[in-house]
Design brief:
The protein contains four helices and 48 strands. It is elongated, with a radius of gyration of 33 Å. 4% of the residues lie in helices and 31% in strands. A hairpin with a 5-residue loop joins strand 5 (104-106) and strand 6 (112-116). By secondary structure, it is mainly beta. The protein starts with a strand and ends with a strand. It has a 13-stranded mixed sheet, with no helix packed on it. An eleven-stranded parallel sheet has the order 7-9-11-13-15-17-19-21-23-25-27, with no helix packed on it. Strands 29, 31, 32, 34, 35 and 36 form a six-stranded mixed sheet that branches. It has five domains: 1-180, Leucine-rich repeat, LRR (right-handed beta-alpha superhelix), CATH 3.80.10; 319-406; 419-490, Immunoglobulin-like (Sandwich), CATH 2.60.40; 506-590, Immunoglobulin-like (Sandwich), CATH 2.60.40; 606-691, Immunoglobulin-like (Sandwich), CATH 2.60.40.
Length: 693
């Protein structure tokens, strides 16, 4: 067989050779074979000391892992020119040996093993702003390369499959402008870490079945769609970050990933139930907030390594299951449809943050025994003062306990004129300090502040709807309302109209507002004079939740990036007359969120407050450059439920990702902000910011 390797020794004047690599085409004529080979020539100064000869390979048949510094030099020079090397922040001096070039590390044989151009050239995953690389990334031919760090640049176009780098261990391509589909990288069997987040990649996600060593997979903040693969052939996968895409369908079981530790996928369109992941013994972080997950929560007792459980802003229902993890520090189940009793979390002694806002929970134990618990949010549920009072030391702001709506059905009482009438509250009868204010048809009565209202002899004028309003000095601003008592007096002469109210279809249009959308369903309805009417929404929205504000007014709280149409069927009834209900349809149109464009104002899309001293604060460069010119700059931040989690005026670039009113860190996720540099001179900017830890 023909020997396929050719070594040539040549002596040339270096001044005759330009910095670019030369390709010389030779023909093997004397062998009687029509074979063409390529020999590459490179100036000796590119190869460094110790390389006194040039070598070439017969590329049609050559192979093996051997070190070919010449080929590496050619590949890097080509890479340099195709990515605008002359405009790099730290350009290469091509007259010097390649192992002196910024961000280039070589192995003991002198071949390139690491290319680190993310702004920190020390061959580490630390990112420091990139090196101003631009253009399309060529398919590098660096046969010994193990680590590729190109984060934070301006590279665009498709990502190559890197078939010329078979020993690659790390591919860090995040924070660029890559587009197109994600390659399956089937020629990289040794790949351990793949970072493609913060690009413009689209299409579906491959199953990466030929990457058995893959441990870290980061594809967040792209435009990926379609279902999630089950990753049956990734036995070493530990971290999977896929947040802020458009991925849909059910969650996989990840049975082929027994080492899984982190599943971070907030801000997608995932549906169906949360799988039972108790077979993932090392699972420590779950963040799937802002999806469309539904059904009951699965058993969670077996997740003994769990540290963070964040499932806010879904459609989960049923009770909260028992958790048993001494490592658990964070639970966020806010913005779902959970019901029943809150667990005591006795098996989670290190719990620091428990966020249960905007559910339908109705029974809460004393949680003050959890000595590390510093952030507790019970707002927007059906708790009574009996639930709240034992936990008042943990409920540090009014926002943490606001908007309680005890879920008690109406009670109808029908009595004869002259009979005694007694109305008794079932909840909050014995909470010391509670004040009771009785109302009839929405108007206050002159009655004692007691949990019982008694009328000795009912009269015709006593017909109506009764309700108690409860307050407590430990919870300023909170007013609880009891169930409604609908009292009918037999044989009573009444002037109340028998004509049923007429519900009329409504249409409401709103600009994007993370604080929610308030509308009045009775504004256009025909209500008979003196009628006591009730409004009930019969169909819940697929995304977000509805809050009843009273008097026919409601608030729709949608995910802050929601746009589209919501249709709500509602029923309007006269409480004092049977068979007096009519139906209508309310249509809500939510316009797309708009961000004010500004050529002079840059606001970052995210920050990472993890205490490493890098990007720990939400820094708006305008305030950094000239803080004295903006003494009234204002920043307001909302979570996905429309709740204000941070507000500052003046803002001084000092938000570190903690919640308002506490020092507890907010969960990883995407938040909506309003920023006004100067209320008198500039408009309001709005957008989204992602917290990563």
């Amino acid at each position: 067989k023909l020997q396929t390797h050719l070594t040539m020794h040549l002596t040339m004047q270096t001044q005759q050779i330009k910095a670019e690599a030369w390709l010389l085409r030779l023909a093997l004529g004397g062998l009687g074979l029509a074979i063409v080979i390529f020999v590459a020539f490179t100036p000796a100064r590119h190869l460094g000391p110790g390389y006194q000869q040039f070598s070439g390979e017969y590329l049609a048949f050559g192979g093996g892992k051997g070190c070919n510094r010449l080929q590496d030099s050619l590949a890097l020079v080509d890479f340099y020119h195709k990515t605008g090397g002359e405009n790099w922040t730290h350009p290469w001096d091509l007259s010097q040996p390649l192992d002196t070039w910024y961000g280039v590390k070589v192995n003991d044989s002198g071949c390139v093993m690491c290319l680190d151009l993310d702004g920190d050239p020390n061959c580490s995953p630390v990112k420091a702003g990139g090196n101003n690389l631009q253009g399309t990334l060529p398919d590098l031919q660096l046969s010994n390369l193990e680590h590729l760090f190109l984060a934070g640049n301006k590279l665009q176009g498709p990502i190559p499959d890197f078939s010329g780098m078979p020993y690659l261990l790390t591919a860090q391509l995040c924070c660029n402008r890559f587009s197109g589909e994600v390659p399956d990288f089937s020629n990289l069997p040794f790949l351990i870490s793949l970072e493609l987040d913060y690009n413009q990649l689209s299409g579906t996600l491959p199953d990466f079945k030929n990457l058995p060593r893959l441990s870290n997979l980061y594809v967040s903040n792209n435009d990926l769609s379609g279902p999630l693969p089950d990753f049956k052939n990734l036995p070493k996968l530990e971290r999977f970050y896929f947040q802020n895409n458009a991925l849909s369908g059910p969650l996989p079981t990840f049975r082929g990933c027994p080492r899984m530790q982190r599943i971070i996928g907030f801000g997608n369109r995932l549906t169906g139930p949360l799988p039972d992941w108790q077979h993932l013994a090392g699972l420590s972080h779950i963040n799937l907030s802002g999806n469309q997950l539904s059904g009951n929560l699965p058993p969670l007792e077996g997740l003994s390594a769990l540290r963070s459980l964040v499932l806010g802003g879904n459609r989960l229902e049923g009770p909260i299951p028992t958790l048993r993890s001494a490592h658990l520090v964070e639970v966020d189940l806010s913005g779902n449809h959970l019901t029943g009793r809150v667990p005591d979390f006795a098996a989670c002694p290190n719990l620091k943050s428990l966020l249960l806002a905007n559910n339908r929970l109705s029974d809460c134990p004393d949680l003050s025994t959890l000595s590390h618990l510093a952030a507790l949010d019970l707002s927007g549920n059906a708790f009574s003062f009996e639930d709240l009072e034992p936990n008042r030391s943990l409920l540090k702001t009014p926002e943490a306990y606001a908007n309680q709506h005890p879920d008690q059905p109406d009670q109808t009482l029908e009595i004869a004129a002259g009979e005694p009438l007694e109305l008794q509250l079932q909840a909050d009868r014995d909470v010391r300090g509670t004040t009771y204010r009785w109302l009839k048809n929405g108007e206050p009565l002159e009655a004692p502040s007691k949990p019982t209202l008694r009328i000795e002899k009912a009269r015709a004028s006593d017909l109506g709807v009764y309700q108690a309003e409860l307050t407590h000095p430990a919870f300023p601003g909170l007013r609880l309302k009891s169930r409604r008592f609908i009292v009918k007096v037999r044989d009573a002469q009444t002037t109340l109209p028998a004509t049923p109210p007429l519900a009329v279809d409504d249409f409401f249009e709103f600009d994007a507002n993370p604080g929610g959308y308030v509308f009045d369903l009775t504004a256009n309805d025909e209500l008979p004079d003196g009628a006591l009417c009730s409004v009930e929404i019969l169909s819940l929205p697929e995304q977000g939740r509805i809050e009843a504000l009273g008097g026919g007014r409601f608030r729709y709280l949608a995910p802050f990036d929601f746009e589209g149409t919501v249709e709500l069927e509602y029923q309007l009834c006269n409480l004092l007359h049977e068979d007096s209900c009519t139906l209508a349809l309310a249509t809500l149109v939510i316009k797309a969120p708009q961000t004010l464009a500004s050529e002079t104002l840059f606001i970052p899309e995210g920050f990472s407050p993890n205490g490493d001293g890098i990007n720990d604060f939400f820094v708006i460069p305008l305030l950094e450059e000239d803080p004295e010119s903006y003494p009234r700059a204002e920043l307001t931040v909302f979570n996905r439920m429309g709740q204000v989690v941070y507000h500052a005026q003046p803002y001084r670039n000092d938000w570190d990702g903690t919640a308002r009113g506490s020092l507890q860190p907010l969960p990883e996720g995407t938040y909506w902000y309003f920023f006004t540099p100067d209320p008198k001179r500039s408009g309001r900017h709005q957008g989204m910011v992602t917290i990563l830890r």
